[in-house]
């Protein structure tokens, strides 16, 4: 067991930013994706585990704060010297003498940035700079808090590809906070869904998907024709411009597939869509709470 | 199957040890001191107030005040001016310069980023103190060379020079700790810089560095001045510059008081910033 959260409560003034009542455990080597809207308590959770914010309750772990590595939303460095000097100080090494670091710098195509000052780097280069140093730390637990926020689509895609590639055969535990569902689909094997400071769902991605979406889902444009064609199939909550249809088994899938193909309808099939799963988990969570109130 | 599992456990244990080795708390080392020196070098304020300002002020004061005093008293006055202005070096580098530099870092959360990389607050502070002492040594050397070549300073007793240097380094360390704590408490460059500037000029005024001697101050302010080590360097050290005896007890007591103030501020700042996982 890497870490267990028990009865955690974080308050900012009178407002409760995060409340976790049922115990949550992270195992060694797990990749946890933390998702939720703004103000859901994602960064608060990261800060509580890192010991950066006061809380009530318990976080049981053998790790000391300095044994965890963290990429925060805001990562600032001095601007009085080239980033190469900062990197060598933080990692207590010389780049030209450290083959592993040289490889990582090359892996992220960061060689050309080493002589620049931090304020002269682009958004993507700034993220890469912190990521390289965090990866070199090889911490037992690493946090990535919205590592791609503020980056353009192409830079975001490239950065995620690099991260996925780097962590493919590694055993480090990761906690990845992100607004982008597709990033978590690539990196996380467990999802912690937060909303307004509460835990809506926590578990393995495929299990959560089965619970809230069924065996597989089909996503198509929301229009009158598509609505008419798919009448009778179980619809899930989805963004307004889409229709999400749930299939419980292969038989139902084949039936739907044949209708869609016969009518030349464009669609996307998924058995791991975190966005649709999250929307439906949230829906069920509040419906259950409403029921309990009444 | 069992052997595979055993091998897996062994690999996990080895990886754990490897990770543990990488993620030790980082202690103060040469790389950190060099980093801090580069950081100081990029701060214009430290250069100007720590090197240019004291040399310029000594020259101006010694030319203007030195010309107004009788020939017999001139040596003592010039030594007094030189000693007072030597205090500007630790006060500018370790208090104003450091306060300005570090409070900007705190405002941008650079120290937090360092702590997240495994640096302990104590190690960071230690590296900053060492680097600033090195820079202060360079400033002292420039000041000494400047004094020797431009001023007619009487040859000092070795014990007086040692006493002066030890005092200046101690004052510098205490001032740096105060500036560090203030920056950590207020977290904003503007507020910290305003406070350190106000304290700086108050200290200069109280300790006789602004042209008004401590004896000319009201009784209450004289009592406050007596708690500051700078007062003794500025007012008394000229009397034993070329040798002689001096009662160091009030001077030592002022150090204890000044050091205690900085210690309390540091402890408070560290308590506020502590990282606790319970």
Structural notes for this entry:
The complex is a heterodimer of chains A (294) and B (278). Chain A has 294 residues and is of the alpha/beta class. Chain A is 38% helix and 25% strand. Chain A is built from ten helices and 14 strands. A six-stranded mixed β-sheet of chain A has the order 6-7-8-4-9-10, sandwiched between helices. In chain A, strands 1, 2, 3 and 5 form a four-stranded antiparallel β-sheet that branches. Chain B has one domain. Helix content of chain B is 78%, strand content 0%. Chain B is globular and about 70 Å long. Chain B starts with a helix and ends in a 6-residue tail after the last helix. The relative contact order of chain B is 0.12. The A-B interface holds A 28, 49-52, 54, 58-59, 61, 63-70, 72, 74-81, 85-86, 88-90, 92, 133, 136-140, 171-172 and B 12, 15-16, 18-20, 22-26, 29, 31-32, 34-35, 38-39, 41-43, 105, 108-110, 112-118, 120, 275-278.
SS class of chain B: mainly alpha
What is the count of distinct domains of chain B? 1
What is the alpha-carbon Rg of chain B in Å? Answer: 23 Å
Overall form of chain B: globular
Q: Helix and strand string of chain B, N-terminal first?
A: HHHHHHHHHHHH
Label the CATH architecture of the largest domain in chain A: 3-Layer(aba) Sandwich
Number of helices of chain B: 12
Q: Give the end-to-end Cα distance of chain B, rounded to a whole number of Å.
A: 39 Å
Q: Strand arrangement, largest sheet of chain A?
A: 6-7-8-4-9-10
Any idea how many domains of chain A? Answer: 2
Q: Major sheet of chain B: size, sense and barrel closure?
A: none
Largest interface: A-B, 40 and 37 residues
By CATH, the topology of the largest domain in chain A is Rossmann fold
Major pleated sheet of chain A: 6 strands, mixed
